[in-house]
């Protein structure tokens, strides 16, 4: 392996890192004196251009291969997931153009980009060391991003909770991964699977597996490792919360699926009704079921839209786990489609929340009253996002759920996961209630203090409209994403 | 007409009009105008379809549009109509403007109720623009359901029609609207979920979502073997497994029609919904279930429908539905609830016809004429009941408007003396519902019984009790409300205004036309029926 090969494979990541450095240096040197808006605008644009360049690189110069025994693997599938992550990052940056929570623009944008780099490496990793390192890189950036609103005590509280829980989860995960290394003598996922093959499920492996699942469960905010999510979502500056909920979710789910499906191949067990067998499947089936139930039921009583989105995120993590449970190519495809469209929708929803926050100072449900008359375009976008999250056709959320449920029902021989699918469908009917609560505030409840228009920056509106169009478009023509996904999966032999 | 995706346009028109209307906000008059204009345009489109429809062709391939959508999942965009689809599209197009007219002043009504109720609705009630937008969305869902031939988007439209209906009941209904709407939603949702799961299982076994392709598999028996090969569920044998899948889909439709004992949501929902919405619910949405029976269950699961055990159960349920709902209607004291039960009764005849047809479906099955008669009757009954029931609920809406919300059987009396035209026209509609020869209701029921008697003698004979009881309770309405001594309270009961007469005459004239000259419809549906009977050989 030469460094040139490494550079070829890691070029998109390098591009993003360079962009982060450029943004940081520019902001700290030549732009010191300019006002906040201008700095955010220029640096934000640079960040977006950097991400876009990385996307273009991935599209135009597709790299194939791996270095150092799976430390960094590049193929068409990882490229696709990276494109999703980068697009979500771009949208996050675009939506923070009107942010007022910080004066440290350079640091803020650099951290967003570093988090994105972490996610990209995470997507590419097939080695537990690299997985842990990139997971930590993402997490550390996200902890700081959560705490970025120094004027708000809640932001600090949220970050501390996120950090403490995260540190704990990382410790668990590291312990689990070290046990795996001890058991198998390998760090590469394929090598681990080969070493574990035929040994069955010894108690040490169970401990290792549970600990690893705890680590991932924390990252994707699945019950019972979800406790940080509502506080972090509520306290964090809205764009940071959007990144935690979207890009980081996509990458974490992808890598969790990889570790479980590849690394623990052979010890799946079975979560089928009446055909239970120990392994990671029953483990995450329980996590999925609990997430769906608790997330949806707890979301009903929330009075703050960011908290509501946090509980809904927990529930969606539950649905997405169904994709992992299918443990086959269509499961992976459905998982990626699901988390990608979910990420997109949730970025849009947080964008609307940040618009409302900028004008009303808070994101309580009652702050959304009368939005339809004050800012009809934003309200319409919010309707698209909420209905998509609820899984109403023809939006992206509907096809995502449909696809995941289909994959889960089809997994295994005899519809063994049907019980989980039925639970998921029942719970998504419940979820309709709280998403409609938001829409009720926006469209139905009359404002007491009149209906004076709201000044919504044209730029934010345009970004929101683009996201909404994407959500509708991916819902009406899911093949735009499913087609490439399936050809990538076929090409990489999953 | 070649090359114009007219069915897609038909479905998208109300959808876009609905979005525009919803966005209009406070300009209520304009919103209402656009909504009504859109529904008239849909009607014109439907009539255009009717005109350019090739009546001699009974295949399910007219105005066909077929495009790849999600190839990896075997999902196509596939729409087409035959006589049945066309008839249902036309019915939807006719009933929707009627329902809009019946709810013309819906927002004012909500205001007038005033007091506590208005408080609960926010300061001035929900805007009527929202009402009309929801009606348009509902219409789009209905058009989509009646034209889609691929499960994926068919199901989207099926669900899409449920959501606006829920809100129409929930937001504009009577005092018990909340529990009624919730019950409605939960019942139909459970039915839909059962159906969705069944279709997922079918897809996993066959890789197909296409109704026509699935019908082919069902006919050749490949479907059952594919199901057992793929799903082998807890060592169930093929028959039992297929029966479970069939049961899931059956449940979805049985709730929607409804078939007793899945009907308990209906009286409450019909009674609490504003009358305009009830017109849509009974006029068109209940037909979705019957349509599903004919389009999906009969061709795909003919074997299961025809199985003797299933036959016994279903035929008994149909008879029970017919007789008990007639008796239940007789026991009601609220006009809307009476008509609600009467709706169940009338659709019971449709189900009786369908189940009886499914009785003889062997490869050498004869009795083709009888089956064709029964199915023709079912189609006619669907259309006629839609027209008649919607008109009756319109009359009830007018009564409510004049009486300030009263609609009890015993609240009135002798209205004939003060409002002769009103009573005359409503009387005609009631007689049509009763099945008086010369009016439309008679033709369908006659054909159903003509066909069913040789097919399922016993059930048909028992069902006649339903006809008798229907006659009794409808005559009771006539007697209590229109005749007898005039209730002094209503001495100033206003008769129909010329405008109302003009509008109501349209469905009334249609009733006469279809009663005296049913060939108008029969010519269009008969080739379809013949084709269906031809294919019902398993």
Task: Produce a short descriptive summary.
Chain A is mainly α and about 500 residues long.
Question: How would you explain this protein's 3D organization?
Answer:
The complex is a heterodimer of chains A (494) and B (538). Chain A is mainly α and 494 residues long. Chain A has one domain. Helix content of chain A is 74%, strand content 1%. Chain A is built from 21 helices and two strands. Chain A has a two-stranded antiparallel ribbon with strand order 1-2. In chain A, α2 packs antiparallel against α3 and α17 runs antiparallel to α19. Chain B has a two-stranded antiparallel sheet with strand order 1-2. Chain B is 76% helix and 3% strand. Chain B is mostly helical. Chain B has a domain of 232 residues. The chains are: A mainly alpha (494), B mainly alpha (538). Chains A and B meet through α18, α19 and α21 of A and α7 and α8 of B.
Side-by-side strand order of the widest sheet of chain B: 1-2
Q: Tell me the quaternary state.
A: heterodimer
| Main sheet makeup of chain A | 2 strands, antiparallel
User: Roughly how much helix do the residues of chain B carry, as a percent range?
Assistant: over 70%
Attribute tags:
heterodimer, A: 494 residues, mainly alpha, two-stranded antiparallel sheet, 2 strands, 74% helix, B: 538 residues, 23 helices
Secondary structure blueprint with pairings:
The complex is a heterodimer of chains A (494) and B (538).
Chain A: H1 3-9, H2 11-28, H3 36-60, E1 65-67, E2 72-74, H4 76-95, H5 105-124, H6 128-146, H7 153-184, H8 189-196, H9 203-219, H10 228-235, H11 238-245, H12 247-263, H13 280-300, H14 305-326, H15 329-360, H16 371-374, H17 376-390, H18 396-410, H19 418-443, H20 458-476, H21 479-492
Antiparallel strand pairs in A: 1-2
Helix pairs in contact in A: 2-3, 2-5, 3-4, 3-5, 4-5, 4-11, 4-12, 4-15, 5-6, 5-12, 6-7, 6-12, 7-8, 7-9, 7-10, 8-12, 9-13, 10-11, 10-14, 11-15, 12-15, 13-14, 13-19, 14-15, 14-18, 14-19, 15-17, 15-18, 15-20, 15-21, 17-19, 17-20, 18-20
Chain B: H1 6-24, H2 28-52, E1 62-70, E2 75-81, H3 83-102, H4 106-113, H5 115-120, H6 128-147, H7 151-172, H8 177-206, H9 211-220, H10 222-231, H11 238-256, H12 265-272, H13 275-300, H14 302-306, H15 308-331, H16 335-357, H17 368-403, H18 415-418, H19 420-434, H20 440-455, H21 457-482, H22 498-516, H23 519-535
Helix pairs in contact in B: 1-2, 1-6, 2-3, 2-6, 3-6, 3-13, 3-17, 6-7, 6-13, 7-8, 7-13, 8-10, 8-11, 8-12, 9-13, 10-11, 11-13, 12-13, 12-16, 13-16, 13-17, 15-16, 15-21, 16-17, 16-20, 16-21, 17-19, 17-20, 17-22, 17-23, 19-21, 19-22, 20-21, 20-22
């Amino acid at each position: 392996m030469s460094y040139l090969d490494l550079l070829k494979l890691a070029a998109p990541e390098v591009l993003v890192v360079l962009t982060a450095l450029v943004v940081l240096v520019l902001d700290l040197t030549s732009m010191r004196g300019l006002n906040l808006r201008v700095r955010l605008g220029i640096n934000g644009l640079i960040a977006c251009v950097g991400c876009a360049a990385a996307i273009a690189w991935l599209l135009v110069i597709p790299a194939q291969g791996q270095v150092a025994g799976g430390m960094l693997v590049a193929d068409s599938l990882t490229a696709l997931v990276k494109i999703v992550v980068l697009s979500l990052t771009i949208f996050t940056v675009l939506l923070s153009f009107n942010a007022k929570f910080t004066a440290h623009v350079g640091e803020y944008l650099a951290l967003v980009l570093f988090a994105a780099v972490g996610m990209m490496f995470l997507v590419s990793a097939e080695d537990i060391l690299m997985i842990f390192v990139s997971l930590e890189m993402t997490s550390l950036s996200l902890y700081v991003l959560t705490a970025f609103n120094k004027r708000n005590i809640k932001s600090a509280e949220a970050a501390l909770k996120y950090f403490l829980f995260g540190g704990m989860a990382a410790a668990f995960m590291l312990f689990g991964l070290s046990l795996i290394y001890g058991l198998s003598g390998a760090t590469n996922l394929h090598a681990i699977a080969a070493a574990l093959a035929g040994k069955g499920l010894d108690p040490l492996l169970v401990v290792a597996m549970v600990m690893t699942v705890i680590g991932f469960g924390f990252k994707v905010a699945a019950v019972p490792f979800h406790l940080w999510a509502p506080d972090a979502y509520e306290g964090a500056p809205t764009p940071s919360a959007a990144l935690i909920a979207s890009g980081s979710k996509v990458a974490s789910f992808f890598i969790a699926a990889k570790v479980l499906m590849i690394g623990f191949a052979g010890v799946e067990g079975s979560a089928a009704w009446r055909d239970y067998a120990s392994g990671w499947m029953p483990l995450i089936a329980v996590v999925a079921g609990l997430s769906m139930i608790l997330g949806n039921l707890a979301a009903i009583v929330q009075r703050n839209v960011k908290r509501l989105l946090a509980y809904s995120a927990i529930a969606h993590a539950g649905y997405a786990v169904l994709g992992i449970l299918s443990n086959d190519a269509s499961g992976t495809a459905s998982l990626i489609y699901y988390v990608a469209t979910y990420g997109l929708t949730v970025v849009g929803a947080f964008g609307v929340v940040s618009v409302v926050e900028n004008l009303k100072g808070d994101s309580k449900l009652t702050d959304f009253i009368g939005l339809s008359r004050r800012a009809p375009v934003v309200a319409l976008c919010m309707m698209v996002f909420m209905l998509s999250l609820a899984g109403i056709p023809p939006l992206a959320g509907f096809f995502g759920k449909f696809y995941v449920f289909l994959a889960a029902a089809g997994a295994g021989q005899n519809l063994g996961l049907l019980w989980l699918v039925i639970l998921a469908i029942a719970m998504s009917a419940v979820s309709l209630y709280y998403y409609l609560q938001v829409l009720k505030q926006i469209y139905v409840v009359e404002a007491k203090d009149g209906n004076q228009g709201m000044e919504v920056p044209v730029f934010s509106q345009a970004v929101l409209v683009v996201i909404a169009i994407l959500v509708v478009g991916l819902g009406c023509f899911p093949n735009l994403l499913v087609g490439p996904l399936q050809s990538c999966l076929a090409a990489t032999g999953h | 007409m070649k090359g114009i995706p007219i069915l897609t346009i038909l479905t998208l028109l109300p959808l876009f009009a609905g979005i525009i209307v919803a966005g209009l906000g406070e300009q209520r008059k304009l919103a209402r105008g656009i909504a009504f204009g859109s529904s008239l345009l849909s009607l014109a489109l439907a009539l255009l379809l009717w005109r350019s429809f090739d009546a001699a062709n009974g295949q399910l391939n007219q105005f066909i549009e077929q495009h790849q959508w999600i190839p990896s999942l075997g999902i196509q965009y596939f729409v087409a109509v035959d006589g049945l689809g066309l008839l249902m599209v036309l019915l939807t197009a006719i009933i929707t403007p009627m329902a809009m007219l019946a709810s013309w002043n819906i927002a004012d009504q909500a205001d007038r109720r005033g007091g506590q109720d208005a408080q609960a609705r926010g300061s001035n009630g929900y805007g009527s623009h929202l009402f009309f937008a929801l009606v348009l969305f509902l219409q789009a869902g209905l058009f989509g359901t009646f034209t889609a031939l691929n499960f994926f988007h068919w199901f989207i439209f099926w669900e899409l029609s449920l959501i606006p209906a829920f809100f129409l009941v929930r937001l504009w209904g009577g005092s018990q609207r909340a529990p009624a709407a919730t019950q409605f939603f939960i019942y139909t949702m459970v039915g839909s979920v059962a159906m969705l799961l069944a279709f997922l299982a079918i897809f996993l076994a066959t890789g197909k979502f296409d109704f026509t392709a699935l019908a082919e598999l069902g006919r050749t028996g490949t479907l059952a073997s594919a199901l057992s090969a793929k799903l082998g569920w807890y060592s169930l044998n093929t028959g039992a497994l297929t029966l479970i899948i069939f049961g899931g889909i059956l449940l979805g439709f049985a709730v929607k029609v409804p078939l007793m004992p899945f009907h308990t949501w209906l009286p409450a929902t019909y009674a609490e919904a504003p009358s305009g919405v009830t017109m849509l619910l009974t006029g068109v949405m209940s037909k979705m279930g019957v349509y599903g029976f004919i389009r999906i269950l009969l061709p795909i699961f003919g074997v299961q429908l025809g199985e003797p055990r299933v036959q016994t159960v279903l035929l008994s349920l149909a008879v029970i539905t017919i007789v008990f709902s007639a008796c239940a209607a007789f026991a009601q004291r609220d006009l809307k609830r009476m008509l609600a039960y009467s709706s169940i009764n009338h659709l019971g005849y449709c189900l009786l016809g369908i189940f009886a047809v499914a009785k003889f479906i062997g490869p050498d099955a004869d009795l083709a004429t009888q089956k064709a008669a029964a199915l023709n009757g079912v189609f006619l009954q669907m259309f006629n009941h839609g027209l008649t029931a919607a008109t009756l609920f319109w009359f009830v809406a007018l009564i409510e408007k004049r009486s300030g919300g009263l609609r009890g059987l015993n609240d009135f009396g002798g209205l004939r003396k003060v409002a002769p035209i009103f009573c005359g026209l409503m009387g005609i509609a009631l007689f049509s519902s009763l099945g008086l020869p010369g009016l439309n209701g008679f033709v369908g029921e006659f054909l159903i019984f003509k066909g069913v008697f040789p097919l399922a003698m016993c059930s048909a004979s028992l069902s006649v009790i339903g006809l008798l009881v229907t006659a009794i309770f409808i005559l009771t309405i006539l007697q209590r409300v229109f005749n007898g001594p005039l209730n002094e309270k209503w001495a100033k009961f206003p008769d129909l205004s010329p405008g109302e007469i003009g509008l109501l005459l349209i469905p009334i004239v249609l009733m006469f036309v279809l009663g005296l000259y049913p060939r108008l419809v029969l010519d269009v549906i008969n080739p379809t029926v013949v084709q269906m009977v031809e294919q019902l050989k398993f």
